[in-house]
Amino acid sequence: MTSANARPSGRRGRRALTVAAVVALVLVVLLGLLWAMQRSVVYVPLGGEPPPAAEVIEGAEDVRLHTGDGLELGGWFVPARGADRETAVLVANGNAGNRESRAPLARALAAEGFSVLLFDYRGYGGNPGGPSEEGLAADVRAAASLLAERGFDAGDTIYFGESLGAAVVTELAVERPPAALFLRSPFSSLADMGARHYPFLPVRLLLWDRYPVTAQVAEVDSPTTVVVGAADRVVPPEQSRGVAAASANLFEEVVLPGAGHNDPETIHGPEVVRAFVRLADGAS
Fold it and tell me: Which of 29, 81, 211, 279 lies 20 to 30 A from 184 at CA?
């Protein structure tokens, strides 16, 4: 005999299946959007071309970089002031802004006797193209090639990478070993960063770009300094410390107490500049 409750239970079961199907569909759509738009989250360029170099930094000049895949990128070359150390600094930016925001750092390093190259990645600072791990690797190679044309081979250059730029120059250091490597607020890998900030998503399965900094820094024999902001809420300090621990030739780990990721103290503060000078002196 058929139970009186059989029909309602069947309807409830069908409703539950329908709800589950809708939820699954929404999740699939959201994951698809995240997969398609992930680079707009990773890379945050500031639109518009910066002003002429000399308007921002006295004595600086505008330069053009030419990538292996045919792009022309803008940059600034800042000559050393005072006692010239005959060493260049290749600065690789983080994931936001453009070269104009790195002008205070360039001034500080030039005052210490270093020639400095600031440049913008593809898609940044009015440059053509769209950023990606492969693209940024081509961009920083073009920057190194420009310095070589000016007499600064990799052995006469210190790579300075901040945050995402630390990943960019670490990969370059594997290919073209520099005089030294300076990493400010590096993450261990982009996958680790994504998993930290989006723990509810299968980030490791979705990512196109990887930036395996910890694995690559273990292959770099150049003296390496790692700067850690103890109060960094963007790149977890433990990830930066992990990069330092993995370094094949750690010169120094510098911890900035109370410093956040984008604090002036972390970006171009006196302790950062002093740590850079110590590395340069130790590598010479």
Answer: 81
